[in-house]
Amino acid sequence: MAKVHVHPNAADPERRPPQDDQEEPEPPTVLTVWRKSLLFNCHGFTVFDARGDLAFRVDCYASARRRAEVVLVDVAGKPLLTVRRKRLSLTDHWVIYDGDGTARPLLSVRRHVSLRSSSKTLAHVTLLGSAAASAAEYVVEGSYGRRACAVRDARGDAVVEVRRKDSVGDDVFRLVADPSLGSPLAMGLVIALDEMFGAGRGSARSLLRRTWSV
């Protein structure tokens, strides 16, 4: 597949030279996300690594109003994650599954509902799976529409960040994933956030229209 020239910026953050007396922690993964599918007549995402090579992609033929699930695939087209809408939920709620969606659920992403328009919380993320991990929760804060938001753990540390790229608009942005969560799950969270807060989906009217869909 030919490369598309939507290149990431230089390494971010910078790596320091390794020390002889201690092991250097693994740095975050920095990806460039293009909110566009490379396939004709498709919606989705094309994701590049720090070298500008294709890392992941999302190709959706269904319109946003009818979409019940979105699949993240690797370069060869193998399903990595399936992001599926929770049926009959009282709020916008998506569940991220391993692989093609027949395997175990990994994360639950629920839109934050508040009467305060000033609330900076967008969504709540729960780590699913083992009993030990079932209580682990994250909060998404900031503005996805402005491409300036972060997924934070209980200590307030960012495990995923969505950052603007200078002079390229909202359809191309940077995704920073901490190794504790990993880049595929970070991209799964971006998919869920885009379904909740993408263009035309941020209002209460839009939320009510989508709540009872399939």
Note down, in words, how this protein is organized.
Helices cover 11% and strands 36% of the residues. A 12-stranded antiparallel beta sheet has the order 3-2-1-12-11-10-9-8-7-6-5-4, with helices on one face. The C terminus is likely disordered. The chain is mostly beta strands and 214 residues long.
Helix content: 10-25%
Strand order of the largest sheet: 3-2-1-12-11-10-9-8-7-6-5-4
Q: How far apart are the termini?
A: 34 Å
Helix and strand run: EEEEEEEEEEEEHH
The major beta sheet can be summarized as:
12 strands, antiparallel
Show the helix and strand layout.
Elements: E1 29-34, E2 43-48, E3 54-60, E4 69-73, E5 79-85, E6 93-98, E7 105-111, E8 121-127, E9 137-143, E10 148-152, E11 158-164, E12 172-177, H1 183-197, H2 204-211
Antiparallel strand pairs: 1-2, 1-12, 2-3, 4-5, 5-6, 6-7, 7-8, 8-9, 9-10, 10-11, 11-12
Report a brief summary of the structure.
The protein is mostly beta strands and 214 residues long.
